[in-house]
Amino acid sequence: MVEVKVDLADHSYTIHILADGISQVGQLLKGLPLSGKALVVTDENVCPLYADKLTGSLAAAGFHPAVIAVPPGESSKSLATADMLYTQAITLGLDRKSPIIALGGGVVGDLAGFVAATYLRGVPFIQVPTTLLAQVDSSVGGKTAVNHSLGKNLIGAFYQPGLVVIDPLALSTLPERELKAGLAEVVKYGVIADNTFFRYLNDRAGAILARDPATLAEIIGRCCKIKADVVAQDERETSLRMILNFGHTIGHAVEAVGGYSEYNHGEAVAVGMHAAALISQSLGLCSSEDVIELKQLLNRMGLPLAAPGYRPGELFSYLVRDKKVISGKINWVLMTGIGQVKISREVTEVTVRAALEQVI
Question: Which of 85, 117, 124, 136 is the most buried (most CB within 10 A)?
């Protein structure tokens, strides 16, 4: 078992990375001040795979879990679905010590976390991520949200989980497309913080795509450590934490223009990272060789570099509504080399549109 501490003073927590961790969630929760009723939020794909294992673990530890499975996909990250979960929580009699447990990918985690943050002004929240994307990124750091028709993650809260349990064995049932989506976030960590890790990903790409357990555990642990360190320094994204958004500004626009169905989050972020790298190069912040290295690794991971058929103007209209816009300016995360980035608000519309033209 690997443990990563997220050090946030009075709401610090531990990330447990362990094989067959889903069957050990109940035991791990026994050490927390929780009441017996628990609500497990999952989706209709994950439910038949892992819900019984999780609820069996909870019951063995003295909890009384109920399970609600929502439809898979971004459409469930909505106020309407949140309202349904509030109704279920009230009907079940969940109190302020009743945990809400997210079992699934990023959509489930964001949705369940938002409900946990707002039900009774905040109840315990536990993350049990089952996708690579959620294991290396969205389950850690306390960002919770639902989408609005005008943009992604516009309605949400910072709300840290009390515990994160990551079971790498859950990746054995992950569809190939979803595995690759998670690899976009993995590559991101190499670009923003760790040149050596970026090289490791290049060297081990074959083993990663073959789902070698030891290699997957290694990359999950490294990504969690990088994110934990960043979040510990800037929990509410006022400065340093913004670097975790590398590729996400344009990525979110790609998702939104496609109705959250044409490209999944990881695919859109891969396109966004390519565009951000092109912007960085055009501003003289990184070399053409850096951009080529990033493109080559994304290609090796089976991720797209472009979103053909999209219109620059349509994408740009979403960029200016992004939640990272302040006083009309976007906080761009730009490469200064592999393993290094900087934040800039001085990127012109002309520069952005020129990059968009190269990724559509």
Answer: 136
CATH 3.40.50.1970 fits 2-173, yes or no: yes
Q: Please confirm, yes or no, whether 248 is among the known catalytic residues.
A: yes
Q: For the chain, report the end-to-end CA distance as a whole number of angstroms.
A: 43
For the chain, residues classed under CATH 1.20.1090.10 are: 176-358
- pLDDT tens column, 198-222: 999 999 999 999 999 999 999 999 9
Say how many CA atoms lie within 13 Å of 94 toward its Cβ.
31
Q: Looking at the DSSP assignment, which residues form a beta bridge with residue 182? A: none
Active site residue 252: yes
Out of 245, 255, 264, 274, the active site residue is: 245
Known catalytic residue at 178: no
Q: State the catalytic residue, choosing from 152, 188, 241, 274.
A: 241
Active-site hit among 74, 178, 185, 293: 185
Catalytic (active site) residue 143: yes
Catalytic site residue 222? no
pLDDT, tens only, 52-78: 999 999 999 999 999 999 999 999 999
Q: Is the pLDDT of residue 322 over 80?
A: no
Q: What's the whole-model pTM score?
A: 0.94
Domain with CATH 3.40.50.1970 in the chain: 2-173
User: Which strand (E) or helix (H) includes residue 155?
Assistant: strand 151-158
Nearest to 215 by CA among 95, 132, 338: 132
Q: Judge: domain 176-358, CATH 1.20.1090.10.
A: yes
